[in-house]
Fold each of these.
Amino acid sequence: MSIRDIHWFRFASPPNFYHLAGRLWPYFAALAAVLTLVGLWIGFFVAPIDAQQGQGYRIIFVHVPTSQMSMLIYLVMAGWAAWGLAFNTRLSGMMAAALAPTGALFAFLSLVTGSLWGKPMWGTWWVWDARLTSELILFFLYLGFMALQASIDDPRRADKACAILAVVGAVNVPIIYFSVYWWNTLHQGASVTLKGASMATPMLVGMLIMVLAFWMYAIAVALLRVRTIILDRERHTEWVKHAME
Amino acid sequence: MSANLSSMDTIEVMRAIVRREVAMAMRQKGEVLTPLMFFAVVSSLFPLAVGSDSALLLRMAPGVIWVGALLAAMLSLARMFASDHADGSLEQMALSPTPLGLTALAKALAHFLVSGLPLVLIAPILGLQYGLDARGLGILMLTLLLGAPTLSLIGAIGAALTLGVRGAGVLLSLLVLPLYIPVLIFGAGAVEADAAGLGISAHFSLLAAMLALAGFFAPLATSAALRISVE
C-alpha cells in the first residue's frame, strides 16, 4: 500500500487515532530513550571541556533542548488549536490539550536548568535578561492555557476557548519577545549572549542528538496523553467499553 | 431592521452601545469609583513598603503607577460582558445584524471611557506624591492615554473567554496579565527614558502601533470568544 492510498482523515476520528497513537507511541518512546543515552554519553564523555566554563557548561545538553522545545510546542499547540477552530475537528483540541503540560514542563525545566547554569557562571540564579524573562512569560502563557482548560466543564467549549487563547498568545509571543528584548537593552547592554556557532563539533552533535531525543519524548508523551484524554471524553461510548475489555 | 444594514446604522448602534454602557456605569458610581480607590491605595502602599527615600520613589514612580493602573483597569474587566451574559442581552447582540466584533469594539471603548480614562486623570495626583515633575506627569498621562485603550481591547478577549467560568476573576488575571507586558514596558519605559534624557518618540510609536494592532485584531478574537460563550 503506497502512502497515497491512506485515507488521512480517517485518523481525525478519536477511536481511530486512539489505536494509531497506541501503536506509535512505543516507537517514539524507544527512540527517545536511545537518543537520550547516546546524547548524554556524548555530552558527558566525548565532548571536550569548555575552555572558559570548564565542566559546568555540560548542562547545555539539557538546557538548550528544553528551551527550544518549550517554544516549539507552543507553536505546535497553537497550530492544532487554529486547525480545530477552522475545521471544527474534535481531535485537534485534544492534541492541543495534550501538548500543553509537556510544553509547560519544558518551559519550567528550561528556567530551572538555566538558573542552575547561571549560578556558577554568572554568580546569580536569575538575571532579568531578555531571554530569561520571555521564557518566564511563556511559562505563564502555558499556565493560563491549562487553567482555562481546567475551569471549563464542557470539553468542547474548553477546547474552543483555549484555542482562541493559544492563537492570541502565539500572535503575542514575538511582540512580547521584542518588547522584553528592547526593555532590557534600554537599561543595560546584553549581559549574556550565547557564543553562537563557535562550538566544538562533538558538543554540537551531542546537543542536536539531545534535541532529537526531546522531540521524540514530547511526541511519545503527547500521544500517550491524548489517548487518556480520548478515553476520558468518550467513556460513555461503545467502542471505549470494547477497547477496555 | 432591514437586512442590508448601511454603515451609518452600524455606527449608530456602536454609539448607542457606548452611551448605554456609560449611562449604566454612571448609575452605579461605586463600580467606577472602586477601581480608582484601589489605584490610589495600591500606589500609596509602595512608599510605606520601601521607605520614603525620595530618589528611590522618583525612580519607581512610572513603574508603580503603571502597574497600579493596569491592575485597577483589570478589576472592572470581568464586568464588561457579565451582566449582558446573565440577562440574555448578549445573545441578542450576537443575533443582531451589527457584526459582533463591532459590538465588542464598542464595549471595549466604553470600558476605556468608564475605567481607563478616570485612571489617566488621577494618575498625575499619584505621580505628584512620588515627586514627578510637570514634564514627567505629562508624559505619564500621555502614555496611559495611549496604553489604556489597548489594555481594554486585550482585556475584552480575556473577559469574553472567562464568561460564566468557575473562578473567572483570578483566571482572567492569569490570562490577561502576560499579554499586558508589552504595553507596560513601553508605557512605564517612556517616562523613565525621558528622565534619563533619551528620546521617547519610539515608545509612543510602539504604543500607538500596539493600539492599532489590538484595535483591529482584539475585537475579532473577542467576538469569536463571545460566540463560544453564548453557544
Amino acid sequence: MKSPRTDAALEEQSMNNDLVNRTGVPAPLTSRRTFIREAAAASGAGILSAGMRVSAQGTAAKAEQMVLPTTTKEVISFKVHVPQAALDDLKKRLANARWPEKEPVTDWSQGVPLAKAQALVEYWRTRYDWRRVESTLNGLPQFRTQIDGLGIYFIHVRSKHENALPIILTHGWPGSIIEFLQVIGPLTDPTAHGGKADEAFHVVIPSLPGFGFSDKPTEVGWRLPRIANAWAALMARLGYSHYVAQGGDLGAGVSSWMAKQRPSGLAAIHLNLPILFPPPPPQPGGYTAAEQPALAQLGKYASDASGYASIQATRPQTLGYGLADSPVGQAMWVYEKFQAWTDNKGDPAETISVDHMLDDITLYWLTDTAASSARVYFESFAKDFARMHLELPVAVSNFKGDFFTPPKVWGDQTYSKLFYWNEVPKGGHFAALEQPELFVAELRKSFAQVR
Amino acid sequence: MEMEKGSENKAGATATFSSRRQFIRAAAITGGASLLAAGPVPIDAQQSPKKAPLLVLPAATENATPFEVHVPQAELDDLKRRLVTARWPEKEPVADWSQGVPLAKIRELSDYWARNYDWRRAERTLNSFPQFRTSLDGLGIYFIHLRSKHERALPIVLTHGWPGSVFEFLEVIRPLTDPTAHGGSENDAFHVVVPALPGFGFSDKPPEKGWNVARIANAWAALMKRLGYERWVAQGGDWGAGVTTALGHIQPPGLAGIHLNWAFVFPEKIPTEGLSQDEQRAVDAAAIFQTQGAGYFLEQATRPQTIGTALADSPVGQAAWIYEKFNAWTDHDGDVESALTKDQMLDDISLYWLTNSAASSARIYWENNPATYVGGKIDLPVGVSVFPREIYRAPRSWAEKDYSKLIYWNELPKGGHFAAFEQPAAFVRELRACFTTLRA
C-alpha cells in the first residue's frame, strides 16, 4: 500500500505544507485534503498484521509482533488493528502467569497487593475487550507522520467551528492518548456538551516517541526539548498558526519546553501537574507554612515513591525485559501508579474504570513499549524535567488528588504571565481520565483569555 | 526428632557428634526427600489450579533437618518454555550497558540458559554438601554446614547478599574446612556454616514484615548456638555485611570477631573538606552509585511486590535484573565472563528463578529502608578485605574510627563485589590471615 509518489515529491509536499503554515492561510483545508487522499491510499491499513518484520535476533515464533507502517513527512491516515495472534498470546501469558508470594503487609506499601493483582489479571483475561477500545480509536481520525526522523502517531479532531482554538494535548507516563478520549467530544463540539461555540477546540493528541503507535527512537537524544520541537513542527504541519498546548506529567514537561522555546504560533500553555519544584526560599526564615505541604509531598516522593523513576531513569533496558515478557509485570508497573496517583480512598477503580485502566495498560503491552517509554526518563528525568522560568502565558490547574500540588506562590515566582490558577477539588494525576468534565471546564475557562 | 531443644549446644565438645548424629538420624527419617516434588502443593485460594510445578519446601522444626535439592522436572520444563517464548523489547539505543543489559547480551545468556545450561549439575554440587533446614524465630532457614575434620577448627558463618546466594561460597567451603588439602595448614581450618537469607534460596519467605538485618543477625546467633558452637566468627559482603555488622553490634555470646568484604564505615556527617584521597574516592564512588546505579535499590526498597510480580513471571526479566549486577560489580575489563562464567551466573539466577524469590529477596531492601553506609562503631574484633571493584572501597582511616579493634586490613589487587565467587583463592587467604589471631 505504498504511495506511488517519490520521496522528492513528498518532501515538496511537506515544504508546501510548511509554506501554507507560515502564511497561516487555509490550513484546515490542507489537512483535510491530506486526510482524505491518504485515507484513500492507505485504505484502512494500519498496523500490518501480515508481513511481519522479524529482527535478526527474533525467533520464528514471534508472529504476533506488531509492525508500524513506515512514515514520511506526509500526514498519513492510520487505523489500529492488532493481530488476533497478539491478543491470543496475551491471554495465554495471563493464564500461565507465575505469581510471587503474598505481600507481608496489609496495604499497597510494598506495591500492588497480590489479591488486587490477580483480580485485575483475571478481569483482563476473561472479560476485557481490546476490540472495544480499538473501534473507539478507529472512530477518530488518526494519523502518523514523520517528524525529525521519527514516525509520530496522533489523533486529530477538528471542530466544526472554524474559529476553534487549536490545542495539542500531551500525555505522560504511564498514561497515553487513552487519557484524553473522553474529552475530545466536549472540546471539539462544545455546543453538544454544555458549552458554547466560542469554547471550541481543534484537538491534536500525539503519542510521545516510544509510546503507543509512535515509533521507538533508535538513537539517544529524544529529550523533552526535542519532543517539544517536534510538537511545534507537527502543529505547523497541520497548518495551525495560533494554538495552545496542554499537558500533565511528562506532558507538562513537553508543554513547558514548548513554552520555553516559544515556537511561532504557540499562544499559551495549560498544565496540570506544573513542574514547580521549590524555588529557593525568598526570605532567610525559609519556607512558609503554606509551602510546607508541597515540600512534604516531594519528600515523600523522593524517599518512598520514586523507585520506578529511578530505575527508568538509569536502567530502562533492564527493566524492560521483565515488562516486555510479562503482561502481568507490565500491568502492575502501571496499575500501581493508577492507585497511587488518582483521587481515591484506596481503590483506583473508584476514579477510573477497570476497563479504562486496562485500555492504557493493554496499549503499553501490545505495542511492547515498556522499555521505550521508560527511556524518556533516562533521556530527561534528571536534566529536563525541571522548574523553568517561562515568559509565555501559563495556566495551571492543580487537581487535589495528584501526588504533587505546588502552591501558587511558586507559580508566581516561576511564570511571569501566570494568567490562570485553580485548585480543582476532585481528580488527580490523570486529570482528563479521572474527571473529564472538570478537565474540560478548566481548559474552557483558562483559555477563554487566549482566544 | 524430639531432641531436647538446645541440649546439643550446652557442651561444645559434643557439638560435632550431636550435629552428626542429628544429620544421620534425620536423613534416615526423611529418606532423602527434601523438596517435595510430589505431594501436597499448597494452592493459594487465589491461585489458579494450573500451577502444578511449584516448589514446596518441607516444614522446618527446631532440629537441623537434612535437606537435599531436587527441583521437579516440570519446573525446569516450564522455565525452558518461558525462555523460548520470551517476548523482547527493542534493542537499546546505546552501544554499551548504560541503559542496562544490552539486548544481544541477554539473548545470548537466555539462549545458553535454555539450551546448554544444566541445573542438575548445580543441584549435584549443592547436594555434595551437607544441607539442612531448621526453624529460627518462626522461619525455616536453609544452610550448608560442613565441619572440618580438625576438631579445633574455627566455626564461621558466611552470609551472602543480593543478588548473590549460597552459590557464591561453594568454591571456598572445602578450602576453608580442609586447609591441608588446599595449600593451608591445620591451624587454618574452619567449620563452615552458609545460610540462605530469609526470602532467599531454600530458606522460607517471611509471611510477615520485620525481618531486618538485626533480626536476621539474631537468628544467625541462634543458629550457631543450635549447632553447638560456643566460639565462632562471622563474615559477609553486601547484605551479608549488613547482617554481619549487626552481629558486631549485638555481640551475641560466642561471637569472637567478624570479617567484612564491604565495610560500611561512612561517618554520620561526611566532612566537606580535608578528605584524604581514599576518603574522597569512596565518597565519589558512593555518589555515582547513588545517582546512576541505585534504581534497583530504590525500587526494591519501596515497591518490592510490584517489581517482584514482573520478575516472578519472566525468567528473562529475572535474569537481566541480576546479570546487570554481575556485569556492574565484578572485576573485569568489559567481559563479565572473565570474572564469572555463564554457568556460575546462571546457577545463581536459576536459584532465584526456581525458588521464585524475586519479590521476597527484594523485600530485604524494604525491611531495612532507609539503608545507609553508616555502619556505626563496633567493639568486637573486625577484619576487612577491600576488593578493588567494590561499589566503593572503604577507606582505612574511617574503619579505624569505627572499629576499635581493627585486627586485619588488606586491599587486594583483584576482585569485586562478589569476592568469594570471583576470587575464591584470595578470599580463602583473607579469612585465614584475618582470623589467625582469634583462634583459641
